[in-house]
């Protein structure tokens, strides 16, 4: 691993990468995840603010210009619950429902403006505790289309644990051309969503790549380090009321301390015993399971770090929540800082030296154990920060977010080049773009499998990854 000179990949590593990618592609459909939709909601009479015990449902009615349509009645029906809300021109309205579950939203067509229609007129969505499930309807000019014609469905009530769905920006996903193909605006919106997903994924993946580069371990517990950061944000911000920036600093410190503790209690003793990398990888799997159960014991439901409704912000024609733009900026600055550290500082050169040749680095006076300890601390701190930003940007998360992210993190670092920091960034951006753009043309449930299929194809053509180098033998 180097920041400016990729690490040489060995044949066993290439084989492991292909096997890992194939395994990820086979089971990715079972671990799809999405983020609840979000939109700005003004302080009006029907406003519902989700918290740890509150579940909200919000119907959204927009015209062809994406502006709210006032005066439209929408009924909300669920188990032992039924209500009718009337939209306003100030923004979406929301109501509190008694429990999480499936709710049906139906537009009263008699209340639509003259010479307009809603397509469709009914939606089902899944409401989660601690989040607002939103169902969007677009009002078009002219008579309603033939009911026998094919309809394009857009998920607007995705479960709160699915980071692939969109918040306020998700409303743009319904902008479909007359031919049924995605419009330029929709594609451009998904490019922005892909960049957001890719940058946040890269922030977590860089640490995973650094660990592999210096130790040769594929850390399967790295996903739980992401959840530790998100869970820390939930406790510090939501429950204790700390400012976001204060909580972010504390979470980075806490994440780094978990890495230091792990290295002192587990990895350093095992390294001194000469434990093979394959056995160390099994230890990471056991640690991952232990952390999962601990996190589930702490909180098993959907958690929302910031309970206020997100504010949509449009930049360069891409609408994301303000929290998303800030998270992207923070992730980009941190990643650039990592690149500068690896290329411009003594510790960065020491990390690269240990990754390239541990014995030679030790012979030149570098302490490999100290370098590895720094890598573990840095990697877990970055993962914790990534978890906080993901939880804030995508609205909410669950205890098993780490398992769901792990496959894509492995895909990113393998696609970019095992053990390369820059490769993790490039691979993450590509994974983010492919995942979001694929959702425009294929069912949302299988779009992650598409990204992993591309990973397998790339590895068959270039096993060392995009930025990896072939091993020179002899």
Automatic annotation (TrEMBL):
**Where do the record's region annotations for Disordered lie?**
106-167
- Does the keyword Plastid feature in the UniProt annotation? no
Annotated Gene Ontology MF terms? transmembrane transporter activity
Q: Which InterPro entries match?
A: ABC_transp_permease, BCAA_transport_permease, CarboxyPept-like_regulatory
- Here the segments flagged for biased composition (Low complexity) are 157-167
Q: Where in the cell is it found?
A: Cell membrane
Asked if the Swiss-Prot or TrEMBL record annotates the protein with the keyword Coiled coil, the reply is no
**GO cellular component labels:** plasma membrane
Native organism is Myceligenerans xiligouense
Which residue spans traverse the membrane?
Answer: 194-213, 244-265, 277-295, 315-342, 370-391, 422-442, 448-467
The primary site where this protein sits is membrane
**In which residue ranges is the amino acid composition biased (Basic and acidic residues)?**
114-125
What is the protein name for this chain?
Answer: Amino acid/amide ABC transporter membrane protein 1 (HAAT family)
Pfam families according to UniProt? BPD_transp_2
Q: Which UniProt keywords apply?
A: Amino-acid transport, Cell membrane, Membrane, Transmembrane, Transmembrane helix, Transport
Q: What's a BP term from Gene Ontology annotated to this protein?
A: amino acid transport
Family label: Belongs to the binding-protein-dependent transport system permease family. LivHM subfamily.
Q: Topology in the membrane?
A: Multi-pass membrane protein
